[in-house]
Design a protein that fits this description.
Blueprint lengths: L9 E3 L2 E3 L3 E3 L14 H12 L4 E8 L17 H16 L3 E7 L36 H21 L4 E4 L5 H6 L19 H14 L5 E6 L14 H14 L3 E5 L15 H9 L3 E4 L21 H9 L5 E4 L1 H5 L3 H6 L19
Helix pairs in contact: 1-2, 3-5, 6-7
């Protein structure tokens, strides 16, 4: 592990990173009333001190009544919440790290059981949940415009607070992804239709955010083929379909694509060893972040990963050396050990705290 490619610095526009390790966004539910407190700031600072190059925060919900699916997820609106995020930025920067908020609208994933006193229904392109069941009315165009505006306001606030960019959550079956997926988007207006047409909502969000932050503020879009309750879902079965989906988004202003998969080493399409991040970089020409079970003995479904969880780091270094993708996001390994990045860099693999169930119970 002597000066591996994983720890080479990277500069992308105004974003200067000390290494290629990204803290993946992970919902924590430790922000009462949507306000991140000093414990949240300290939590993120520890990961910056531990050697992470870029932190992408847990999903932070935008200023729309139906944006949240759970209590105690942080808001990205309101004076108290934004003051809390301002302190997070200061702590991370003081530790030499970079940080972006993940801007989130959960759409049809909103859990009414979490809000028993609320009459605010989940919203989505066609009012269909991920099972294709009719739950609420389709969004009308004025409602869509108000949500686009809420994303843009959140982006502007991120820049004002001193964040180093933003990530838009367009994966896992949440609102933006619900527009992408034909199972949840049955619209017959300009926001529906074929795969390329179904990108128009995301294009509008990206363009509005770009206008709000200017040309030099990085915009990351997180994407996935799979959905929260459907790991076999596919938006693109071929590289050509991948281009139909992603080129409009690249042209709209995405700087970096964050490509969510269960295992980073699994090829995306037959006949090629490239994973999803590799293919996205190839078809769009944009930098990409890969992710999926780095350092884990089991993936997100609990399925065992083959062999030593750290045996794949050498292969990961080679993938970065070949420029198949540019950055690698690490999730639960960083929950278990805030110093994971430094320990890997120093070759202290035996000192890394393994992932266990108790890491989810508190901020450490």
């Amino acid at each position: 592990m002597n000066k591996p490619n994983l720890f080479h610095p990277l500069s992308l526009w105004s974003l200067n990173l000390r290494n290629r390790i990204v803290m993946a966004p992970m919902t924590r539910n430790f922000s009462p009333n949507g306000v991140p407190g000093p414990d949240v700031a300290a939590y993120y600072r520890r990961r910056a001190e531990g050697g992470v190059g870029l932190i992408i925060t847990e999903g932070t919900v935008i200023n729309h009544p139906a944006s949240a699916a759970d209590h105690d997820v942080p808001h990205f609106y309101g004076e108290d919440a934004l003051n809390g995020w301002s302190q997070v930025v200061k702590e991370v920067h003081a530790a030499g790290g970079k940080i972006m908020p993940q801007l989130w609208h959960t759409g049809m994933a909103r859990k009414m059981s979490e809000f028993p006193d609320s009459d605010i229904n989940p919203v989505g392109p066609s009012g269909l949940n991920l099972q294709g069941e009719q739950v609420s009315n389709p969004l009308n165009e004025s409602e869509i415009a108000s949500i686009v505006d809420a994303y843009a306001q959140a982006a502007a606030n991120a820049k004002r607070l001193g964040f180093d960019g933003i990530e838009l959550h367009g994966a896992h079956g949440y609102l933006i992804d619900q527009f992408f997926w034909e199972k949840t988007n049955r619209r017959t207006d300009r926001y529906g239709g074929d795969l390329t047409a179904r990108t128009r909502f995301a294009e509008a969000v990206i363009q509005a955010c770009r206008e709000a932050v200017g040309p030099d503020f990085p915009i990351v879009l997180r994407i996935s083929q799979w959905k929260a309750d459907n790991y076999d879902a596919k938006l693109a079965d071929t590289p050509d379909q991948l281009a139909q989906w992603l080129m409009p988004l690249a042209n709209a202003g995405v700087d970096i694509f964050h490509c969510s998969t269960r295992r980073f080493w699994v090829p995306e399409f037959e006949g090629s060893e490239l994973n999803l991040a590799g293919w996205v970089k190839k078809v769009t020409g944009k930098p990409t972040i890969s992710v999926g079970s780095v350092g884990l003995e089991a993936d997100v479904l609990g399925s065992a990963n083959d062999g030593n969880p750290y045996a794949r780091l050498d292969a990961l270094n080679e993938q970065i050396k070949r420029e198949e993708f540019d950055l690698i996001a690490v999730g639960r390994s960083l929950l278990a050990d805030a110093a994971w990045a430094n320990k890997v860099r120093e070759g202290r693999l035996d000192d890394i705290t393994p992932v266990s169930a108790d890491v989810f119970a508190k901020l450490t």
